[in-house]
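hey so i finally got around to running both of the ones u sent me last week. sorry it took forever, my laptop kept dying halfway thru and i had to restart like 3 times lol. anyway pasting them below in the order u listed, first the sequence line then the C-alpha cell line for each. didnt double check formatting much so if smth looks off just lmk and ill redo it

first one:
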Amino acid sequence: MVSPTRRALLHGAAGLAAGFAGCSGLLDGSAESTRTAPRGGSNGRPESGSVTDPETLLLRLATDRPPIWLATSNSEDSGRPAASERDRWREFIVVDDTARADRLDVADTVDRDQVESFLAATDFAGETVYVEMGAVEECFRLDLCYIGWTPTEISTDYTRQLRPYTERCEADELVVEARLVRIPDAIEAADLNSYSSSIGSGVCDRRRGHAEGEGGSEPSPASESDIRTETATIDSGGGQ
C-alpha cells in the first residue's frame, strides 16, 4: 500500500488541452451530471463514491489485443497481452501514482501524446486513472453512464448506441474501445480486488441518482426502459 507521505508528495501537471477528435481518440463527457460526494471511512479515507461525468479519454481502435498495458522490462513486447480468442473481453488497469503511469505503454496505433497528456494532468494525490478496455461491434459505440468505486471495487455502466449512419462500418467486425477515466478520488491499486462492467440498451439518464453528499446505492445508470444485456465481473486480481 502506498504511504500517505507518498500521496502528499505526488503532483500532476496542470491543465489538459481539450479537443481530441477522430477515431484515434476523443474526450467523453456530458453537460448534465450527477456526482456523489465520497463518504468518509473510519480511517479518514473515502468509503465510496460515483460520478456520471468523469474526465475521459476515449480511444477506438481496430485491434484484437489490448492497446494499453503496464510494461514489464523482462518480457517480450514489453508485456503486451496476447490477442484474445474471445469475441468479448474486457481488461482493467488502475493507475494510482506517477511510477505506475510511467509504466503505461501503448500500441503503435495509439496517439501516445494524448495518453501522456491525460496522465500528466492527473493529480495522483487526490485522483486515480482507471483504464477499461473491451471489444464492441464496429457499428455501435458505448456511452459511459457512470463509474462507481469503493476502496476495494470499481464498477462501470454503459449503454450501447448505434453510430450515425453517415459513419461507415462493417456489421460483423469488432473494434476495441479503451477509456482512460479520471476518478476524483485517491484509490490504492493494491487494495482493489473486484472490477465489474455492465452494458445495456437504454439511454443514460445522468439527471437521476443521489443528491450531493447523500449515501445509499449507486446512481441509476439509465432510463426505466433500459434492458441490461451484458455483465462482466472479475474478482481477486482481475485488474492490473
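and the second one:
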Amino acid sequence: MRIVNTLVANWQRDKAEDKIKALLKTSIDQPDLIYAHNDAMALGVYKALDSLDIDDIKIIGSDGVDKPNGGLRLVNQKKIDTTFITPTGGKQAVQYAIRILAEDSEIPKKIILRNHEVTSQNVKDFYLKRNELTDHLDTDGKVTLGFAQVGNESAWRTANTDSIIKAADHENVDLQLKNANNNQKKQIAIIREFIKQKVDVIAFSPHGRTWLGRSITGSKKCRDPCHII
C-alpha cells in the first residue's frame, strides 16, 4: 500500500469535503481508497466524490454510530463501503462501577472492547442492535454514579454519553453526569464537586493522563465509599 496524501479535517464533515475536492482537482494520482478517522469525515468524502462524479474510490470510516449520518446508516445506504464500530463502553462503565461497590474480586484490570468491521455484507447484523443492553445486574440499593464526561467533540463521544445514560437507567443507577466541554480544569472541578457530594462512584473520560492524582490529592474528602474508575 502507498499513502499518497494525508489531510487534517478535525473531525468535521464540511472541512473533509472541501479538502478532498481541492485535492482531487489538483492531484495527478487518484487514490483507490480514502480512509476517514470518523464517519462524519467519511460522509464529507462521499459528498466530495459525488459532486465530482467519482464513483470508483472506496471509502472507509470509523465509529460505527447508529444515528442519522452515523457509520452504520452510511454503510446501509451504500454511501461508504466500510466502517469500524468502536464500542463506547458506557454499559461496561456502569456495570463495573456496580461490581466495584459490591466488592467483586473478579474484576479485570483491563477491559478490552473489540472493534467490529461493518460492510454491506454484515451491516444488517449490527443495524439498530449494537446498543442493546443485556445482563441486568441486581443491586440492594440505588448507586449514585458521578460521571465527568470529557466533552462532545465527535459523534462517537455523543454516542458514548448516550450509552452511559441508557445503561444507568437500565441498571437503576442514579447518574450525575456533567460535561467538561474539553476543558481540563473544568473536569477537575467536576470531580472535586462529586467528591464533596460523596457519590458512591466517580467515573470519567480523562482529558489528560497526568491530572487525576492532583485532582484527588487536592481534596481531603475522598474516603471510602467513594470509588474512582
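quick thing i noticed on the 2nd:
The radius of gyration is 21 Å.
anyway thats it, ttyl
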